[in-house]
Specification:
Elements lengths: L1 H15 L5 E9 L14 H12 L2 H11 L5 E7 L5 E7 L3 H44 L4 H23 L3 E11 L3 H36 L1
Antiparallel strand pairs: 1-3, 1-4, 2-3
Keywords: Membrane, Transmembrane, Transmembrane helix
Length: about 220
């Protein structure tokens, strides 16, 4: 009887406690481009992808997503690699399907903006070095041809850098727009019902053992 009662309670509780909707999107990640003036790093695509997964799922990005969506109930922000490709899956949960979709969209926007900002910082650092060299030439310039040639070379490098930074592709390209993964009320209810059945059966067994012991003690007395 206790097992049946536990199963019924579990089904009711499981039906009431519906999991929050989860939205999922798939995007293709672009690797960091090598800018003019930088040394090309050895290609380590898997390490790059794993680093980006950690960045997207970081508490810092989750806080930014909550601020952008305007909802502190967004949770379970995560990112996983799809097979051995450069495609990743970004997911988030929220009390409503619309908020979950907005959270994934916001996470991708925050990520793309940060990747673009990092590229700008790198380009500005290289441009700063070129500007310093140009300033040194101007200070020491006597109008000689070598100085003019060097200045032209530095200006050409700076223009090439600006063009490369403007045309570089960083961040993510959407492969699959955010979609909501349907959550089943009865899936949770079934699991809770099984748990209630097991717990009810255990309680029933313990109760039966206790009664048997008390009955045996009474007969001996």
């Amino acid at each position: 009887m206790l097992a049946v009662l536990g199963a019924l309670v579990g089904v009711v509780v499981g039906a009431v406690r519906v999991p929050n909707p989860q939205a999922v999107a798939r995007v293709l990640l672009a690797s960091d481009p090598t800018l003019p003036g930088e040394q090309e790093a050895a290609a380590e695509p898997d390490r790059f992808i794993q680093t980006q997964l950690l960045l997207i799922a970081s508490p810092d990005v989750l806080t930014a997503v909550r601020d952008r969506v305007g909802d502190d109930t967004v949770h379970d922000l995560g990112a996983t690699q799809v097979g051995v490709t450069d495609v990743i899956e970004v997911s988030a949960s929220a009390p409503t399907a619309a908020t979950a979709r907005d959270a994934v969209t916001a996470a991708l926007a925050v990520y793309d903006e940060r990747r673009a900002a990092e590229l700008t910082v790198r380009a500005d650092a290289i441009s700063g070095v070129l500007d310093d060299q140009l300033a040194a030439l101007a200070a020491a310039s006597g109008g000689t041809d070598p100085a003019g040639t060097e200045a032209s070379r530095l200006l050409a490098e700076r223009n090439e850098l600006a063009l490369a930074a403007d045309s570089a592709t960083v961040g993510s390209t959407v492969v699959q727009a955010p979609v909501v993964v349907e959550t089943s009320r009865w899936g949770g209810a079934a699991r809770a019902g099984v748990t209630g059945l097991v717990l009810g059966a255990l309680l029933g067994l313990l109760f039966a053992l206790a009664r048997a012991r008390s009955g045996g003690a009474a007969r001996e007395g």
